[in-house]
Amino acid sequence: MKYSGKKILILGGKPIGSVDIVRYAKENGAYTIVTDNLPVDESPAKQLADKAWDISTAEVEILCNKIKENNVDAVFTGVHEFNIWRTFEVCNVLNIPFYATEEQLIKTSVKTEYKQLFRAFDIPVIDEFVLNAESFEKDIRKVDYPVLIKPVDGSGGYGISICYDEKELREGYEKALDYSKSKRVLVEKYINAKEVSIFYMIQNGKIMLSAMADRHTENGNKYTIPLPVLYTFPSVHLVDYQNQLNEKVIKAFKSIGLKDGMLFIQAFVDGDKFRFYDIGYRLTGTQEYHILENLCGYNPLKMLVDYAFTGNLGNEDLSNLVNPSFNGKQACNITFLVEPCLIGNFIGIEETENLPDVLRVIKNHQVGAEIPQNAVGTLNQVALRVMVVAENKLALKKLITEIIHKIDVQSTEGKSVILPTFKIDEL
Q1: CATH code of the domain covering residue 80
Q2: What are the residues whose beta carbons fall under 8 Å from the beta carbon of 269, sequence distance 6 or more?
Q3: What's the rounded Cα separation, in Å, for the pair 184 and 92?
Q4: What is the distance between the alpha carbons of residues 148 and 140, in angstroms, rounded to a whole number?
Q5: Closest C-alpha to 103, from 307, 259, 210, 312
Q6: Together in a domain, 401 and 345
Q7: What is the DSSP secondary-structure string of 385-421?
Q8: CATH number for 150
Q9: Which residue of 130, 134, 266, 410 is 20 to 30 Å from 273, comparing CA positions?
Q10: What whole-number distance in Å separates Cα of residue 218 and Cα of residue 243?
Q11: Domain span at residue 24?
Q12: Element (H or E) spanning 73, and its range?
């Protein structure tokens, strides 16, 4: 029990990853505390923790005082961008380990900043310009429609609109402003193309390509972006990416001094060319750490919890484990989206969990949760994820088909609310 007698505070009991953080810390003997402003029945990690605090994660000064009073040793959080920043602030004030500096978080979360970084290393990104109140009337004359408009500092799909004329752009601008802390809005040429997600592990300054997935999307419409319904590993574009961009990306990240942690990139693929559109220096909502643990023998979430206690991303050299080709094996994350509703029931969960090669069935929402109308086009529509590994693509296709037929999500009225899933013949 390597953390016996130690205490850890987890900021946010609802965000993705928080429950796994509590589980891992408890398995290793730590006393776990979860804080947020939600009641226990709405905060899954609070339900598992040894102690719950009813303090908002925004209350950094109050949390710092409480941490000192209770002799807490480590502070960490799940994937929520807001809580990442608050965790950094708490750790910075108390001088306890956190894997990123303020500058690194800015460079990897603010869209204008990471695009500037990538351009400096000849890495293609989606062209954009920033809209603000001062030059708004002049700048909108430059727009070549259709465009995607989004907050400079947003995440999760919130505040994003597809606009086809000036009227829609004005409406989209106001919507994006509502979700922008800095009150800055980004306009990009709208692109409808295949997508990939790219993952890196960083240990003691060594930056390693750890995985790459094809990101299959569905359920977009004229005005909302399509959302993921399946991630398949390894990507069919892996070799092209390694040949074209991997070394440039490693140099870009080295230039901002990344030392430890994990990082993801999302990109469009046009033929064999890649164009980056998003990035995050943090754990991901896709929770591919379950797949990496099974196929490669390391778990980024567990390693980052270790870092929160020790300031060290584990003792084992990751370069001996990282292998983005997965030695020829296949894996996927099946993502089930739901329409706006009150969730009444999940069907087929236990049956799916008992299938060979199903690693984990993860509920993003619980029975009774509301998926509001304003969640349309955001990752809040993700109700369920199923993590799967397989020996080959044929076995993977068979398992995906079986799972899609077993799983259902029903509203409180008993209606199936699952949106169209992946078209298996496209794999």
Answers
A1: 3.40.50.20
A2: 193, 194, 195, 196, 237
A3: 26
A4: 13
A5: 259
A6: yes
A7: EEEEEESSHHHHHHHHHHHHHH-EEEETTS-B-BPP-
A8: 3.30.1490.20
A9: 130
A10: 29
A11: 7-98
A12: none
User: 108-124 in b/e burial notation, b at 16+ Cβ within 10 A?
Assistant: bbbbebbbebbeebebb
Q: Is residue 34 part of a domain?
A: yes
Spatial strand order in the sheet of 7-11: 51-53, 31-35, 7-11, 74-77
402, 255: one domain: yes
> Which of 173, 189, 205 is the endpoint of a domain?
189
DSSP string, 77-110: E-S-HHHHHHHHHHHHHHT---S--HHHHHHTTS
Domain total in the chain: 3
Q: Give burial (CB, 10 Å; 0-12/13-18/19+) of 361.
A: buried
- Residue 144 belongs to some domain of the structure: yes
Q: 83 Cβ partners below 8 Å, 6+ apart?
A: 11, 12, 15, 57, 77
CATH of the domain at 240: 3.30.470.20
Q: Comparing C-alpha atoms, which of 404, 415, 408 is closest to residue 341? A: 415
Q: Which pair of tokens denotes residue 390?
A: 């397989």
With tokens 């999940």, the residue in question is 346
Query: Cβ contacts of residue 318 below 8 Å, gap of 6+?
Result: 201, 203, 206, 208, 298
